[in-house]
Amino acid sequence: MTADSGLGALLRDGYWTHEPVAVEPVIDRAALLVTAEEGSDAWRTTSYGFVHDSEHALLRPTDRAFAVEVSFVLDFAEQFDQAGVFLRVDEHEWVKAGVEFSDGLPQVGAVVTHGTSDWSVAPVPSWTGRVVTVRASRSGDAVTIRAWADGEEPRLVRVAHLDPDAVMSAGLFCAAPTRAGLTVTFTACRFGEPDAGLH
């Protein structure tokens, strides 16, 4: 992996919330292959009634104001397969955003959890087979989520509240709630300065 992808540094300095089945650096492609455990997920209570705290998130501590971008190949196509960016304060306070395969289509969206989870999605079938980037920018009391496929402009996905004093970690994640064998190809995870503004 190259230093530019940020994956080597994250793998060296970060920690897993839950160890995946396999992690394979691919040096010549500057990629990281992560295989999820069947049944892995992140969700708290709302509508479904269960608490799942078993996602595979590779995180590092962050500053109060920061941005993180995670890129991955969107080549998964089974119900609830998911990958993207994860921001975690604790088991009750976290945000995941990315692409989740749901109801026959890849959907870009976010789950914001303040004790209980919510979920927002929008279909993105044209992103299939492409490299997708999800960016989370934290500043003040807000996390701003944007996402795009290679060759497209970023689109606003979500603006979510977060306690400005909360201390969090951030990085990449994947999960496979309904099946074994999901392997996500991550191509970058970069940290930097937060967005200058919402618009």
From TrEMBL:
<protein>
    <submittedName>
        <fullName>DUF1349 domain-containing protein</fullName>
    </submittedName>
</protein>
<dbReference type="Pfam" id="PF07081">
    <property type="entry name" value="DUF1349"/>
</dbReference>
<dbReference type="InterPro" id="IPR009784">
    <property type="entry name" value="DUF1349"/>
</dbReference>
<dbReference type="InterPro" id="IPR013320">
    <property type="entry name" value="ConA-like_dom_sf"/>
</dbReference>
